[in-house]
Write a structure and sequence with these properties.
By secondary structure, the chain is α/β, with parallel strands linked by helices. The chain contains five helices and eight strands, in the order ααααββββββββα. Keywords: Membrane, Transmembrane, Transmembrane helix.
Amino acid sequence: MAALKRLKSWVYPVTPFTIVTLLGIAVAIQSIYIGLTYESPMILYPIMVIPIVVFIFAVYVLDRFFIKSTPYHIIFVIELVLCTVGYIGFKYMNSTNDIHFTSDKEYILIIYDVKENSMDRFSKTDLFSKELKSNENVIHLDQSLYLSNKIRIFSPDRWNGGFEDNSYYLYQGDSIPYLYMSNSHSPKDQKYTEQQFIDSLLTQEMTK
């Protein structure tokens, strides 16, 4: 009975951290299973998850300590605020802006020459994440998005691989950044990887 009572004290009274900790343990078990079942790089999943869960459990130990001497409603409100702030912070830190191409062309080209804020063209997909879907193979964005670590470019799903070129194009004295990607998986597609072909596309787009 004493062991059961002690075990019960680790769960009751239930606080927001109780739920977070139980969910964390479940995620840790799942991550270990994935890490042992799937091939690399999935082994990195438990390596990233387990230290976070250990930290959560350490905080929960403090929760069990303070719940004995602090009114329950105070603990509940404080933890609810901390969980909410933590969730919002996590969402912000892991937010992304994705560009999905669905074009049937064998190449895509992003030219960063627009003056206004291009993020207005993105649709919200999460609390802080946004997405832009394009069935065109050439789009123009503002220069601030070039090589941004919060921008993820997704080529058409049907592509089997590809060639990528991040560079600058000199036009009327200005150095215009661009990102070019092609579905170059066979000898017949070699022309799509040649600089002459890329330059001709850029010239065509810049002179429209």
